[in-house]
Structure formats: C-alpha cells, structure tokens
Specification:
single chain; about 375 residues; alpha/beta; 2-enoyl-CoA Hydratase, Chain A, domain 1; nine-stranded mixed beta sheet; two-stranded antiparallel sheet; 12 helices; 11 strands; about 40% helix; about 15% strand
C-alpha cells in the first residue's frame, strides 16, 4: 500500500503510528509543569484556609489576657507608689445614732496580736485626739495580747488621750481580751462601770512569758552546731541552738518578775478593788483565763454586755444628749494595690522582720503557747 503524496493527491501525508510509552519504574512519574497564565492576567489565588471558630476564640482570649496582665501590672506599679500614704490614712464610718450630730463617740479597735503598738491602733488614737467633736471613746478589745512594750505603748497613749482631751474611756471586750488585751483595758482608770465583757468573752491570763525552745538536740542530729561569735557569753543567751544555762535562766526570770510587777500595778490603777486587796489580785494573776461570768464575779470586769451597752455608758459619762450624738468607728483607707490584691498588697511576700522577731527572746503579755510571728498594722 502506497503512502505519502501521489500525483493524484499531492497533499496526502504519510500516516503516523501512535505509540503509548509507559514510564519505567526507574523514571517515575513527573509532575507536568504548571501552566503559565496568558499575558495580562494575574496568577490564580491560592485556596483560602477556613479558620476554626475555636481557634478564633482562643486567640481573642489570649490577647485579652495579655492586655489585662499589662493593665494590672501598671496598676500595681502605680498603686505601690501610693499605697504607703493611703494605708496610713484612716476614715470614719458611721455606726449608730444621729448621722448629723455635733458630738461623736469614737470606737477604737484593738484587734489581733499586739507587736509594736505603732500602726492602725495608734493612728486611731491620733485621729480621736485631733477631733474636738469626740466626747468619749469606746475601746473595742479583741486581742490575746502581745509584747510587753507594745501593750504598754497602747495603754500609755489611751491614757494620754483621756487626760489631754478630758474624755471618758469605756472598754468593750470581744471574743478575747487576755493578757496584753486586758492590760490595755486598764486605760479606763478608776471610773466605775467602764469594762463590759460579752457573755462569751475570755479574759484574764495575767502574767508574763518569754518563749524559749531548746532545739540543740534536733540541730545536732542534723549536723548543725552553735558557732556564733559574740562579745560575751551572755550575748547569745536565749538561743534555741543551745541549752539555757542557770545563769541565763536567772536573768530572764528577773526580767519576767519586773514586768509582772508592773502588770499588776497597772491593774490596780484600773481596778481600785485590787489596790485595796493585793492578795485578791495575786490569786487571779496566775496566767489563768477566765470566762465572763468568772471575771465579773472576781472583779476583773464590771458588767456583762455588748458593745451597744458600752456605747450607752460612754454617752452617759460624756454627758451628751442621745439625740445629738453620732457613733463612729475608724477604718483603714484602702489603696489601689490593696483593692487589686484583695485587701493586702503585701500578701505572699516573705516578712523577714517577722522571722527575726520570732527568733528574738522577748517578754510577752500574751495568751498563747507560741511566740508571735506576725506584725500588727
């Protein structure tokens, strides 16, 4: 059979045999080259990924959390700069009787363990001292006591308030007014019917203690020994790293006895009954805690009653009309940092002063079995 052009058909072409060529395994499959768009047309857009709703949510939450963190840190930085001044200020809070009155009965709170005497209690006393409209003070005591010096400091300034302003002081005891808490209550002086204890109050605990713990055997088991360098052997007396010597014990006992004598003298100034009968006081000054009924019977308190009864007695002693008196109490002024941190801007911080204070031998008018490891504000 003829193929190709012929005289009869010069345009005839030879047939082309088609042959399918299969790639060998060694050659593999080759991806055809991408098609180039015609000139003047933009390249095709890549397919868009669909965003997950959950991913969007977590992204928004992350950005929000970071923003809040930045704002809180900025507030804390600025708040700490102002917190010191803010926390030193106190403000009045209305309690009862007439709001717009000419005269005031101020409630001064003594709460918690007494350490230095400075702080919130002293600022309350200063506030009442400067306010001429305060005609009487009710001292609300809910404290197990504290250091000798701190208790005496508060007692002294309460007495100065009563003397300089010539105003009466009445005490209202809360859950506990023991040891140093009872000590500061003696600021009422010899005015009758001025100490009120609630039915469930614990009071008394008249005495002095210097806590001491001998941990020398425990430290020896741990391979720790006392190796302090001191100017004299008595400089380290009271150390828990060594047993107390008889010489040291006698010195500490003298300090306790002197402080105990002062405690009883202060009680005699506030409880005239015991000034006339010191033996009756000696029977009570054993460190024992008394309930309200026992305390009233033995003359440690005057009456069983609540803070409202103490307020009425203060109004009576101040000789002011009930319809022209306002009862107020003092509160700390919150700082920005304390608001954000939930009340205490120093929460979570290690108080080195408290640790050192706990390791310092000192006397306490305190109803407890452990040394104080906190500081009052």
């Amino acid at each position: 059979m003829e193929t190709g052009p012929t005289p009869e058909n010069p345009y005839q072409q030879a047939p082309v045999d088609a042959q399918v060529v299969h790639p060998s395994p060694q050659q593999g499959y080759r991806q055809p080259p991408p098609q180039t768009p015609p000139p003047g047309f933009p390249p095709p857009r890549p397919p868009r990924r669909r965003r997950s709703v959950l991913g969007v949510f977590f992204t928004i939450m992350l950005i929000t959390a970071l923003g809040m963190s930045v704002l809180i840190n900025m507030a804390l930085i600025s708040g700490n700069m102002l917190s010191s001044d803010a926390e030193l200020r106190i403000k009045e809070q209305y309690v009862s009787h007439k709001r717009m009155a000419d005269n005031k009965i101020a409630i001064i709170s003594v709460e918690g363990t007494i350490i230095s005497g400075e702080g919130f209690v002293k600022r309350q006393i200063d506030k009442a001292m400067k306010d001429d409209s305060v005609k009487a003070v009710v001292v609300r005591v809910d404290s197990p006591g504290g250091t000798i010096t701190g208790s005496d400091y508060i007692y002294h300034h309460l007495c100065q308030l009563a003397k300089k302003r010539e105003i009466p002081i009445v005490v209202s005891m809360g859950g506990m007014a023991a040891s140093g808490g009872y000590y500061v209550s003696m600021a009422v002086g010899d005015t009758p019917d001025t100490i009120f204890a609630e039915p469930t109050t614990w009071t008394g605990s008249i005495g002095v203690v210097i806590p001491h713990y001998d941990l020398s055997k425990l430290l020896t088991d741990w391979g720790i020994s006392e190796d302090s360098i001191a100017s004299h052997r008595l400089k380290t007396m009271g150390s828990f790293a060594k047993p107390m010597t008889e010489e040291e014990r006698k010195i500490f006992q003298t300090l306790v006895d002197d402080s105990f004598t002062r405690f009883k003298d202060i009680i005699k100034s506030g409880r005239p009954k015991f000034k006339e009968d010191s033996k009756a006081l000696d029977k009570l000054a054993t460190g024992q805690v008394f309930n309200a009924v026992q305390a009233e019977k033995d003359g440690l308190v005057d009456k069983i009653g609540f803070v409202e009864d103490a307020i009425e007695r203060a109004i009576e002693l101040a000789n002011v009309a009930k319809d022209n008196v306002m009862v107020v109490k003092y509160k700390r002024e919150a700082s920005l940092a304390s608001i954000i941190m939930g009340g205490n801007s120093s929460a979570g911080q290690i108080d080195l002063a408290a640790i050192l204070d706990a390791a310092t031998p000192r006397g306490y008018y305190l109803c407890t079995w452990l040394p104080a490891a906190v500081s009052n504000q």
